[in-house]
């Protein structure tokens, strides 16, 4: 499968990508659940991004608004203030792929103008009526995520009468039809099942068991974002989110065994090593 972005296409049949691709999380926010406040100073954020690139990340995903459960929204102006200079600085120094994590069209536009290649939208391009047109016209790569509700409400008794795997698959099929009809190339779209976004612990685990099935059914690459999430703490007893990297890497390896080759993570080396080991096992 191929994922086209604004400048570069990633061909997952290419031997150079057989281990997969790390999308590193760079939150320029004061309140993200595991790294809030660490990168809200511009110079620190640029340095962190440079380190992620040095560690082997092929994509840097820059966010200016927390999407943790219960998180309050921020204005587009504040998001742009936090993210646009960071996108511009990293683009000036590197050819790495840059993703903007936003559901606001104006924020996406500012980031694209500064050099972003990808729009990562937790609402699946449903939160802002202008977002589809922005993405179609710019030819950016698009990450469509599934979320039941909003970050403020999503963990208030999420239910899936037809089963979480079936309903997530149906959502993606509808979004693919809608977005391609609106002018976004199918090969520009990848899908994120939204682990932890409007799902119970059991629903998260059900999705994790069926990642490979979902990817085969939908015919598009899946992006897995489980890094440091609270369900890991519920299972392992690790209360401090920043201490969940080894458990995250275990899930990364498990997903690689199902053919999932895109991983959005906080700690690049641990997850890259997990991907390398999983790929080596697959090749024997």
Give a concise summary.
One of its GO terms (molecular function) is metal ion binding. This protein is an alpha/beta fold and 284 residues long. It has helices at residues 42-55, 76-93, 105-114, 131-138, 164-181, 201-209, 211-218, 230-236, 245-257, 268-283; strands at 2-4, 9-11, 21-27, 59-63, 97-101, 118-121, 141-145, 189-192, 223-224, 262-265.
What would your notes on this structure say?
The protein is of the alpha/beta class. It has a single domain, classed as Dihydropteroate synthase-like (TIM Barrel). The chain contains ten helices and ten strands. The chain has helices at about 40-55, 75-95, 105-115, 130-140, 165-180, 200-210, 210-220, 230-235, 245-255, 270-284; strands at about 1-5, 10, 20-25, 60-65, 95-100, 120, 140-145, 190, 225, 260-265. The strands form two sheets. Strands 8-7-6-5-4-3-10-9 form an eight-stranded parallel β-sheet, covered by helices on one side. Helix 2 (about 75-95) links the parallel strand 4 and strand 5. The longest helix has 18 residues, at about 75-95. The two termini are about 20 Å apart. The mean pLDDT is about 95.
